[in-house]
Amino acid sequence: MRIRILKVISMLMASFLALIGYYFLSINYNFTIPCFFHFITGLYCPGCGTTRLIFSLLNGHISDAYNYNRLVFILFPFIIIYFIYRVYLYIFDKKDEIICRIPNIYFYLLLFVVIVFGVLRNINTFSYLKP
User: Fold this and answer.
1) By the 8 A CB rule, do 131 and 38 touch?
2) How confident is the model over 58-63, as a mean pLDDT?
3) For residue 85, how many C-alpha atoms fall within 13 Å in the half-sphere facing its CB?
4) What is the pTM of this model?
């Protein structure tokens, strides 16, 4: 268990350092990783604006974060809870007893919502969904 905790801590530290490095490059040198879907098609994918959302949250600009990607903003607490749950399972070497009980229809529903969000944000009537 101790080795697993050290692995998790090292991965979290590496991720944190990468995020801070990327943030530094973004602020000082305007370095950003482009969305390849948007670059190729000119359309916004469901994830467009997520990096700006995270940077806005780090700066405490909640309303800006919400405007960059409303769907990810709403799902963010669930993503964090799911991540913590998966780390817990890994550290204590337990089997997944919660997620496997959730009927697949909920995952299909989430996929449907993501696809609809991706389509709607590219329609001019819903221009407020664009990042």
Assistant:
1) no
2) 92
3) 12
4) 0.84
